[in-house]
Amino acid sequence: MKLGIAITTFNRAEHLLKQINFIRQFSLGEYELVVCDDGSTDNTVEMLEQADVSYISSGNKGIAWNKNRGLYYLANYTSCDVFLLLDDDILPCMYGWDVEWCKGAQLHGHINYVSDFVKSKVVFGRCTAHNPGLCPVVQGTALAISREAFQFIGYMDSRFGRYGHEHTEYTNRYVKAGFGGIIRNDSTNLYAIMDSGLELNHLPSSGSLKEAKKNEHLLSKLSKEPLYRNPWFNDQEKQDFLKEFEGISDIITIPEWEILKDFDIDFYLKTYPDVKVSGIDPVTHYYLYGRHENRKCKRD
């Protein structure tokens, strides 16, 4: 099983280099690493080139956009089985940390990191891959996703802008799809979490509580939309996003993904009312069942 690691960073070159060295020192399995630089003004790019690390560097667009850079790269330019998003303030602290996070994503489809600061809120579990904790609070510092789970959910929602709540909304979609958590009878979520082999360093944030506050209303508003999201919200964002990947090596084509790109949700629900009655996400239903039953995914 191959791990893809995407580090998102902004103006933390010195700490980023330490993080990369720790990844190289403590990782035991096969992995690919890419750094997503959100328009740093320090020597981040020069340091990455000297360290011979693949990177994507463009304008400062905020957390959701920058993490989508990593997801897009791992999904389309690598053959990795698991995608791991790391902020630049978290460090591996034991040999084999990568194996444990691969296993967590493989077993649960989606799993988050929990720091000691939040661990007191865990209601169940040992916070390992085989026995993850369940917690009503989720942190955005590290997130592992299996490729299979990713194809149902896609990317973070770019409408969250620069900072705030994008990670919670993203994780809620995975839990809703049945990956890495449970929905309780009172409609609140418990998230699957682990702390195996990673240690959080509390560094000053470039975001602000004011920015986060502006995004609170989006959590409930976007919960009514389909689970899958593209890394862009409109045609202009699509052009801007894809332009950042010009000149990168050939995209790896996955046949199942090509099918899902043309999926017509409205057509599928109208044609197969049993799917609508079941309450299953239509894209998930088609991928798991419909295509094997020769159901149509779009109008001829």
UniProtKB/TrEMBL annotation:
<dbReference type="Pfam" id="PF00535">
    <property type="entry name" value="Glycos_transf_2"/>
</dbReference>
<keyword id="KW-0808">Transferase</keyword>
<keyword id="KW-0328">Glycosyltransferase</keyword>
<protein>
    <recommendedName>
        <fullName>Glycosyltransferase 2-like domain-containing protein</fullName>
    </recommendedName>
</protein>
<dbReference type="InterPro" id="IPR029044">
    <property type="entry name" value="Nucleotide-diphossugar_trans"/>
</dbReference>
<dbReference type="GO" id="GO:0016757">
    <property type="term" value="F:glycosyltransferase activity"/>
</dbReference>
<comment type="similarity">
    <text>Belongs to the glycosyltransferase 2 family.</text>
</comment>
<feature type="domain" description="Glycosyltransferase 2-like">
    <location>
        <begin position="5"/>
        <end position="90"/>
    </location>
</feature>
<dbReference type="InterPro" id="IPR001173">
    <property type="entry name" value="Glyco_trans_2-like"/>
</dbReference>
